[in-house]
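Input record (one chain):
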Amino acid sequence: MPSSQIPEQPPQPKHAEKPLVNSRRPVSDPFDMPALLERLANLLDPLTRSAPLMIFLYDPASGQHTLRRAQGAGTWEESDFQFGPDSALAQWLEARDTPIDLAGSQDRPPPLLDSTDVELFLSLRRHGERPQDRPRGWVALGPRPGGEPYSPDELDLLTAIVDRTALALENSHLVEQIAELEQAKVEFIDFVAHELKQPMTSMQGYAKMLMMGIGGELSDQQTQFVNVINDNVARMGKLVNDLLEISRLEAGRIKLKIEQLPPRAVVDGALAAICPDVEARGHALEVRLPEGLPFISGDPDRLVQVLTNLLSNAFRYTPDGGTITVSVSEPEGAGAPPRYLLFSVIDTGIGLTPEDLANLGKFFRADRDLVASQPGTGLGISIAQHLIELHGGALKVESELDRGSTFSFTVPIAGDSETGSLPPTP
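The corresponding structure, as predicted from the sequence alone:
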């Protein structure tokens, strides 16, 4: 049974340490197009000496190059002018290399607007796409107030500025595509999970009726078969739930219910769920939980979920008779984060190779006989990592093959908290 205090910390693996980094973040911040266009106008203004400006962007919804920003000429600023990609103006622009400098040239474009005088066109060209793809837009500049022409160096600088803006537009387009794909993925997983849960519920119900003898008394072999059905349906249910959880975490759809709570509450909640399984394997379970630790700030259910997950991995992948230790302490050493508590699960199990460590943040199960014999989805560590990052903490692992592993995570200390000790259990 767990003890409340252990005098000494058990030896820990000393190499193969890896902080788990989340590389797949949901897209949350919308692209600020007006701010980008204002920035472009501000960058161009000193070079053009406040020449009139129009910025047209291609709008896929309407199929038109639409005026998105205009300044310096009243007629332009009040206009909702647009032109299609097959219009005479678009064809004239695309037939020429940019910048198109019209100063002193007899080559004139089809008219834009009545009384409009354009001296320079710059293309918001696409980057990294097919040469025949049309630009994402155009910048049209009127003559400078003093009438002076642009020098070659000025044209190069103007082109560079507009090209950088075009690249930002490309990035915004990719961000939108990623957001759409993420949303489609979440909707697909939700749909598949719903479709899988219905037949699983039916199988569980009929298996339960068979076990109750509704279809007649079962032989020992038949009972064994029904138990296998139940076990595998439960395993499928765990996989479906884990897929839903990781999908919603990556999409930013999981919200925490933050409270101030004592560390002991998290440890006790996890031990209550895991102790029977640990004892069944004959493991020694040790708990190091010093008195006087401060309260932490977190979602109680989610923190218990994380610690239970790590304890579950520890007992599954530690051979019978091994040792599992749970500890809570204040981080030590150079670079330790201030005002955090460190939760650790230490085992004497099979350990991990450097290759295993490199894949821990993904859908992963180590290629070991003991791992293959245990039920699991391979998503537990990734789910735990996301949940800890939502708390503002970090998850890391230290492991040595055939010597054991230490999984640790940090949780912020509650502001102006009292100590997080609870009265000893009678």
